[in-house]
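Q: What does the assembled structure look like for these inputs?
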Amino acid sequence: MQPVRLSELAAALGMEWEGETDPLITGVAGIADAGPGDITFVSQKGFAHFLERTRAAAVILPPGSPSRIPVLRAEDPYGAFARLLARLEPCPERIFTPGIHPTAVVDPSAQLGERLSLGPYVVIGAGARVGDRCALGAHVVVGPDTVMGEDCRIYPHVTIREGCVLGRRVVLHAGAVIGSDGFGYLPGSAGLSKIPQIGRVVLEDDVEIGANCCVDRATSGETVVGAGTKIDNLVQIGHNVTLGQHCAISAQTGISGSCRIGNLVTMGGQVGVADHLAVGDDAKLAAKSGIYKDVPPGMTMFGYPAFERTVAFRMVANMRKIPELLQRLRRVEQALGTAGEQRED
Amino acid sequence: MQPVRLSELAAALGMEWEGETDPLITGVAGIADAGPGDITFVSQKGFAHFLERTRAAAVILPPGSPSRIPVLRAEDPYGAFARLLARLEPCPERIFTPGIHPTAVVDPSAQLGERLSLGPYVVIGAGARVGDRCALGAHVVVGPDTVMGEDCRIYPHVTIREGCVLGRRVVLHAGAVIGSDGFGYLPGSAGLSKIPQIGRVVLEDDVEIGANCCVDRATSGETVVGAGTKIDNLVQIGHNVTLGQHCAISAQTGISGSCRIGNLVTMGGQVGVADHLAVGDDAKLAAKSGIYKDVPPGMTMFGYPAFERTVAFRMVANMRKIPELLQRLRRVEQALGTAGEQRED
Amino acid sequence: MQPVRLSELAAALGMEWEGETDPLITGVAGIADAGPGDITFVSQKGFAHFLERTRAAAVILPPGSPSRIPVLRAEDPYGAFARLLARLEPCPERIFTPGIHPTAVVDPSAQLGERLSLGPYVVIGAGARVGDRCALGAHVVVGPDTVMGEDCRIYPHVTIREGCVLGRRVVLHAGAVIGSDGFGYLPGSAGLSKIPQIGRVVLEDDVEIGANCCVDRATSGETVVGAGTKIDNLVQIGHNVTLGQHCAISAQTGISGSCRIGNLVTMGGQVGVADHLAVGDDAKLAAKSGIYKDVPPGMTMFGYPAFERTVAFRMVANMRKIPELLQRLRRVEQALGTAGEQRED
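A:
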């Protein structure tokens, strides 16, 4: 962002500001992440302790809340922060030049909406439809019969294969592949025979998918990513998966074929979920967990193999007690005169 | 697939059908995966129990086998299923338009076979050879001196670097990179010096490689993926690896440099194999295993670090016994009057 | 490489050679990796034991060092090996054709250096700058306002997003994505709201980044990869990370947002580092480790969750002692007549 004085920001947003200094604001961040130069916000009581230690330059607070750093005042700090964020978005026209680049190859049977940005070397297949105000970066490939809702933003080198469906405001980051074949083979005497993957992928409204992710098409039927779900980079979504709404899936996680993941599920990075499992609403899977059985709603899992969090933490703590156990057992054996093997260290 | 009645399918395949209803078939699946609307098959006795619980709409069975759901009859159910699958393959001409797109950049010294499909913006380097009936999607890049056998299918945005060799019927999914430099450096006082990676990659007949995979070229010599081996998405194959025939490698697995993997090996997702290891024929590496030493033929490994499966399962089970151990030890100590530290929980 | 006789290599490098035979050299490798046909080197005493067992065809050694295989003599074996490597580099003109391909789309406001290679379908955005002697393969996309130093080598299908900075001699392998949005959202009643990612990525001199990697731009400020750091394939670098100089990061590792990684750090494959952690200089993180707290300088970590290496190895060894513990405890209980539950196996 262009650095601005807090006073200028206050004027631009129509808000009051207070402070002994008028700091230069160079960035934005949540209260847990904010560093020097950042403006942040606190709307819930549970976050007040962050405010004491923050290195942020300024904070958005409700009227009357005390602060040792400069403040913007808003009845609804979160809403004000969201309005601020919207102002900071880089000018999309710089990144996605309006209009259709002359090198774009659009099949005559494709249907294009209004006010598009199609970058250089975009390829749009037969029967595809692209909604109004979509922006497709350089080299994006949209397969035949794929349908895309309004206001999607597709970064360079994305491949969307044939017959997929994207809702509105879907964001796909560079190099993502949507609709690749699922990994399905039948073993036989001559090796593995491919099971044709003839289903599709459906990405609902407001889905965002990270760079170099892969979302496989269903064998038949649909692989679905629910509305509002956000997926980080290098994530694998297997065929026939149903991923619910408003989930957050961190980088390098893999969800195997035919899993049914509920709404509001969060997964840390490098999680693996074995095939055909059900993960309930609001479940939390800690980073690097290896999930091998169904997870009930609301449960937090950790470990490989993964257990409910308190069980898993107890297991790790217990592992560290084995040397003490051995020592105490040896003492007991000596007291009894039954001492067995002495070869332990 | 286009939904069809079981009776129509029977007529098209020249088979008998039986059933109280004539269900609408909307998909195909193996017996373990089949859901409503699917047609499946059972040819081996070991799978009969799946048939009792399946939600499939219909099943292919040998004459005389009982079934509570509608049936197609075939002496060889697997063969009949394979014929069915072949019929369901989407028309490849819809996805890979026949002919050479006028925007394809083909070096004059490259040799092109007959009946190709080269999509928009394909780039083929000097001295490359592309076999008959190959289909290359939009934006595929084939490096100089790379050779590709007949009937390969290469999806958009694949990069095959210089001097690699692909057999016949090789399938590469979108975004895969074949022949990237291996990760080889020499440490010195001025930092890490790159060891030139001057070998190549050989993919034998019927290899299939998933979206956004990386197969590194050898330092010198060859990185080899054996005939019939299938690799899922986002897999890493390091330099100088030899991967055998008819292996199945699931998503996000990584095989480090110079490993020698046998034939018919299966690896779950997110497995890691350390460098310079040998994994024997028919070995099975469970999802997320961390392999740090050679694996004998036929062995099943699990865990991080990985052990033979029964050993690994026993270790997990034992970890859960530590609280009980502590409790019993405390009772013994009390009986003896030797009670030591009491600070355990 | 073109196979050459050891005597020819000696003549070309101006060195003496000795040996009972004049072997055909077909490759190069470090002493730990060298196989038949390779030439290697030993400069440090600590590696002499490798020399006894090596299958290499020849070795570079200081004058006077004994060897059972043919030898090239050099006062500085490492330096001689480095000179040899430089000779073996494949001719870059074969891979990156000199000049600007007529299909390259270069914005009129971009500034191009001298002696470039821009491959087919390269796209360079408004305000971007490309340094002298840079080589950009087919389909590379350079976003608006991105700046690239001299002598960079960018392989096909790389995306560098807007406003990023590359130093000199940076190498990016095929499919890598530099400057993708960080994974930052604010939870609210209407789901997750995107925090605009308005920072950039800085890759310092001599950085090398593997195929299909992702390096996310900062929320505000910079994600930095330090000079000389080498990153393998499919690695994820989160937003706001600072990665030091001369690090080596193996394939499929993920470094979460806002981590500060020191200099000369090495990470094995599939390591995960949780967000906001500090990893000290010279630390070593073993393959598949799950790092959840700060790592002091020089420490070697292993495990999930990761502990200092000797602690982690002890934990694994201890886990294997539980059956013996149970057995000994049972014996003690029997001796005391207090035998409790007998349900253990």
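Residues 340-345 of chain C have pLDDT under 50 and may be disordered.
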